[in-house]
Amino acid sequence: MTKKAVVKSPADPAPAEAPARMIVSLGALLPALLTAATLLGFCLHLIGHADDITYLAALGIEPDLMPQTAEANVIMGYGAVMNQGANLLVTPPIGKIAVVFVAVTIAIWISQVPARRASPPFKTWLSRRPRWIQRLIVSSFASVLGLVMVVAFGVALLVVGVTPAGVGMSSGKERADKMRKRIAASEPEHRSELWRGEKREAQGYLVSINNERLAIYDIDSTSLRVFPKDGLEIRSALRTVAPSRSGDAAAP
């Protein structure tokens, strides 16, 4: 009577290799995430900087007097993106969306058109020319290709730089318009006073603050004034919130 040999199959390596594969995948994804985060931070910084200098220039303040830190520019850039995004949802630019849609449609249609090969082929024609002419033509084509790549790279950088700057400039103009309306409305609840010791330096509406200076619209002199922050005390009235109707009904 013969005995049958029992062959044991090796253990499935998949469960043991799954964590290692996941770690390798995350390691390969990490440089892309770092690059995206760096690009996002650069765009937010650019948007915030454009927002701040546009806002100050629109109000008549020299932007060099009120420089902001990199962290403040990033925060202002995030606020500008949120503000402009909300505006697009409320009042979408139908005309611009239609232009982009038509342009993308035409580009896709052109990319799908089959290309026709030239006859006779350029390679055959070039092979019949003397060697020095071949090298001259090939070098010329290489130079043209290099110039095209440089121009394309410059256009890409221009788009990357102009788009965030445009968002920041639009947000800065809106902030300046809101500040003008607030000053024109003479809202007492938004006023502040600047005191240095026992002397009141100015009273009005705070326009901008950084680590060293403070800008305020002084209602006494009806002008924008910039003060160093050292020794200054800002006094503002407590803003009251109007009670809701449900609160009035519940009150005895």
Supply the key terms.
single chain, about 250 residues, alpha+beta, 2 domains, five-stranded antiparallel β-sheet
Notes on the structure:
Helices cover 60% and strands 13% of the residues. The protein is of the alpha+beta class and 252 residues long. The protein has two domains: 23-110 and 120-185, no CATH class; 188-236. A hairpin with a 2-residue loop joins β1 (192-196) and β2. α1 (14-59) crosses α5. The longest helix has 55 residues, at 131-185. It is elongated, with a radius of gyration of 32 Å. Mean pLDDT is 79; it is low at 247-252.
Short note summarizing the structure:
The chain has 252 residues and is an alpha+beta fold. The chain contains 6 helices and 5 strands; from the N terminus they run αααααβββββα.
Radius of gyration: 32 Å
Low-confidence stretches: 247-252
What fraction of residues sit in β-strands? Answer: 5-15%
Q: How far from one another are the termini?
A: 102 Å
Spatially, the strands of the biggest sheet line up as 4-3-2-1-5
Q: What is the H/E string?
A: HHHHHEEEEEH
Shape descriptor reads elongated
**Number of separate structural domains:** 2
Task: Write down the overall mean pLDDT.
Answer: 79
The share of residues in helices is 55-70%
Main beta sheet: strand number and arrangement? 5 strands, antiparallel
The structural class is: alpha+beta
Number of strands: 5
